[in-house]
Amino acid sequence: MDVKKAVLNILFFLPVLIQAQPDSASFEQLGERDFKNKNYKGALENYNKAMMFAKGNSKLYNQRGLVEFALKMDEEALRDYSKSIELNGDDHEVYYNRGLCSYFLKKYENAIADFSKSIGLMPGHANSYVYRGASYLSTDQSKNCVEDETAAIKLDAKSASPYYYRGLAKYKLLDYYGVIADLTKAISIKDNYEYHYYRGLAEYNIKYYDAAYWDQVKAIKLKPDFAPAYFEKGLCQIIMGEDDKAIVQFTKAIELKPEDGKAWHFRGLSKKFKNDLPGACEDLKKAKDLGYSRSAEELEKLNCK
User: CA 85, 87, 90 angle in degrees (round to 5)?
Assistant: First the structure.
């Protein structure tokens, strides 16, 4: 009787015990939940567990790669994306993800190859054009960048990124009016300190000094620790004849980035314009020591000892 009862109890609880056994799908669901909630460490742990049950699942490798990328484990992410592609080479998303990882690792040629593969599989994927264009920009292929960002804009005109990268490419191509047009559009979509900074550079190059000044003011407001904007603001103030104010801006740039010989050089020039020759010589010597070659000529002109 006791034996019969024990057997019945086992049969009764067996489905529950079977259902409670962990499997790949359950850990995958937990990983997706954690990733969505930005609990990346938890997501990685769950995807690692899911892998124990399904090592041939290409989707899992891609998902774990996304988590690793979010955790800045870039080399690990690259390996997982590559494994996913090895198991299934027809998913444009994995090529895009691997390309993005390579882009941030500055492996631009690899990135270009992956974004091209993604575009081949999914020609309507705007971000593949955006980041292939950005990769072209980083390898001095500015015209190719302009073409890709233009294609991205045709697919998604509401994103600021393609206007930004196209603007940077036009800057390299010396198309300053084109830069201003593109970055003005980017700013209208999403305000960003870099957009104002680079638009200010273009404005400075076509002698729109007042506009350049105010763009650097805005860049500083959006990112107060961005040294290049203080430097460019100082250049505008030299042109405007405001040497005292320029010195303040170059000093701030130096505080934020003391190894920037150019900032020391131009602070030295501003001091020269104010007839502070000892101060000018001191700054120019520092600029020269930091490797800014133009300072040697100024030191000679001022007969600095």
Answer: 55
